[in-house]
Specification:
single chain; alpha/beta; OB fold (Dihydrolipoamide Acetyltransferase, E2P); Rossmann fold; 3 domains; six-stranded mixed β-sheet; 12 helices; 41% helix; globular; binds guanosine-5'-diphosphate; binds zinc ion
């Protein structure tokens, strides 16, 4: 395998120089499962594991290799095996962490070059959600590209594009349709040899359709990577970093799908901080602000302290998130439950900080 085709650049070559002296080779993490890794290297695809020294030295979750990482490995080619000695510095990263808490940072995907933010033109296009995705992309260090799908189902594409452009800050936007083929060739032009892309967007907007289009004959493999490996099947096709036939790489991990929901949740919290501040005073911790007694949110609406329309759009977003959760497969669902729990914990911690800040302000 050609390292340049796998995304190797002078940035990584420089970081790798000291490892080369110790006899290591460079490899890129293509998949991670149950503590083991698959890596791509100049010798082809290898199974890899962490060296004992690495395990001993790694302190934080973010120290461990993630899909997309470049690593220094010692190879035992006769066994198609590699031992990971070090992770090279990341050029970009998508991580999951409790509000900038480095100790809890988990790397979901590393060294992404292009993020395709996918949203469909037929559903109510949500500029606020797009802003959240754009923020997430900028934070990762990767370059965002906006993809507006299902043009065939939209009456006034130009009007929707104008709405997108009002929040996109000059990020390029592509209008596509998998039905008519409109825009697909132009969009494929964004995938360049040696560059790594991910797709972000709500469920049902057409991400898999695009992936299948890009993968051509690789299609079945892409479907296989969406299955979980826990039963030990699909071990050879369980790659989450896929080389596209036309050049370029596509990263598609279940973690990325979870990240979308997670970011949705934290965005929800930030966008509706006012609603949630009232919600913290509801009698029931799981109050739906519907018919429950002693609901502080409905109380605030009644007193004119909170706009009823805002409560309604909050309700809609919460419902959408629940729907997306249910749509996940059972294994992801289990992870999802654990994650939601930790979000709830994190949110409660943040309320406490906010409330104490407010009360100390009021007190001074
Ligand atoms: P994902 O959940 O984002 O991966 O979305 P999918 O790729 O699974 O697409 C969801 C549904 O939208 C499927 O039924 C697709 O056939 C359909 N779809 C995808 N792209 C288009 C499009 O450009 N036009 C129309 N009319 N339907 C599309
Ligand atoms: Zn309530």
């Amino acid at each position: 395998m050609d390292l340049n085709a796998l995304g190797w650049t002078p940035f990584f070559a420089e970081a790798f120089a000291s490892h080369r002296q110790t006899g290591c080779e460079a490899a890129r993490v293509a998949a991670e499962h149950r503590g083991g890794y698959r890596v791509y290297s100049a010798r082809g695809e290898l199974a890899a594991e962490l060296s004992g020294r690495f395990r001993y030295k790694a302190a934080l979750p973010g120290d461990f290799p993630a899909v997309g990482d470049w690593v220094a490995v010692e190879t035992r080619p006769e066994q198609s095996k590699a031992v990971i000695q070090a992770v090279l510095p990341r050029r970009t990263k998508f991580s999951r962490s409790a509000a900038g808490n480095r100790a809890e940072e988990q790397i979901v995907a590393a060294n992404i070059d292009d993020v395709f933010l996918v949203t469909s033109l037929n559903r109510d296009l949500n500029p606020r959600r797009l802003e959240r995705y754009l923020t997430l992309a900028w934070e990762s260090g990767a370059d965002p590209v906006i993809v507006l799908t299902k043009a065939d189902l939209c009456e006034d594409v130009a009007a929707e594009v104008r709405r997108v452009e009002s929040v996109s800050g000059g990020v390029p936007a592509y209008v596509v349709s998998a039905v008519t083929g409109e825009g697909l060739a132009e969009l494929a032009g964004c995938l360049r040899p040696g560059r790594t892309a991910v797709l972000l967007g709500s469920s049902g907007v057409g991400k898999s359709t695009l992936i299948n289009f890009w993968c051509g004959e690789e299609r079945l493999k892409v479907q296989a990577i969406r299955e979980d490996d826990d039963r030990g099947r699909h071990t050879t096709s369980h790659r989450q970093l896929v080389l596209l036939p036309a050049g370029g790489l596509l990263l598609d991990t279940p973690g990325m799908r979870e990240l979308q929901l997670w970011e949705g949740a934290s965005g929800l919290h930030e966008t509706f901080a006012d609603v949630e501040l009232f919600a913290a005073r509801c009698h029931f911790a799981d109050c739906q602000h519907d018919t429950e007694p002693d609901c502080a949110v409905r109380g605030a609406v009644a007193l004119g302290e909170l706009d009823a329309a805002r409560l309604e759009s909050h309700r809609k977003l919460v419902a959408e998130m629940r729907y997306l959760e249910r749509k996940q497969d059972p294994l992801v669902q289990a992870a999802e439950r654990r994650r939601i729990k930790s979000i709830a914990k994190n949110m409660r911690a943040r309320y406490r900080i906010k409330e104490s800040a407010t009360s100390s302000k009021a007190g001074s």
